[in-house]
Design brief:
This protein has 152 residues and is an alpha+beta fold. The protein folds into two domains: 14-119, no CATH class; 122-152. 37% of the residues lie in helices and 19% in strands. It is built from four helices and four strands. It has a four-stranded antiparallel beta sheet. β1 and β2 form a beta hairpin. The radius of gyration is 22 Å and the shape is flat.
């Protein structure tokens, strides 16, 4: 999209809204021309790419990239500039997608999605839920014990 694209009066345009726009790899605003150059270079934008073998001989592809455009759409928070997507073996229809505001979060999210999709790890989310529930119950029990100790 060019900056000089004609628009109908009052037409809303995310590309020109305050707090939105194009960002460089350092998270600083850049011009549309710089963004176009950056978007053409996938090697520069790619954070991680993983292929996960499946038991049926196919594989899933997990790709994490820098987006260059703020996908947060609110302007009230840090720009959402990184995205991880999981693509299936038969098509490039995404199976899962998550977005992040920092490269570190994107790298961590990429590793998490890879772990969640590894064969034999399908119950990872259930395991995390159980562990979290146990931790919360233990914390509540400890609080009750401390309160009871203070009362005596």
């Amino acid at each position: 999209m060019d900056d000089d694209t004609p628009r109908a009066p009052g037409e809303f345009d995310w590309y020109t809204q305050p707090g939105h726009g194009w960002y460089g790899l350092d998270g600083q605003p850049i011009s549309l021309a710089e963004a176009e150059s950056l978007l053409r270079d996938i090697d520069k934008r790619r954070v991680a790419l993983s292929h996960i073998p499946r038991p049926d001989g196919t594989h899933l592809e997990v790709s994490t990239v820098f987006l260059a455009f703020d996908h947060g759409y609110t302007g009230h928070y840090a720009p959402v500039l990184w995205e991880t997507m999981v693509f299936g073996p038969d098509s490039y229809a995404d199976l899962d997608m998550r977005r992040y505001s920092s490269r570190a979060a994107a790298e961590c999210g990429h590793r998490e999605i890879v772990a969640e999709n590894m064969p034999g790890r399908a119950d990872l989310a259930r395991y995390r839920t159980v562990v979290t529930a146990r931790r919360i119950r233990a914390q509540r029990a400890a609080r009750r014990a401390r309160r009871a100790a203070r009362r005596t």
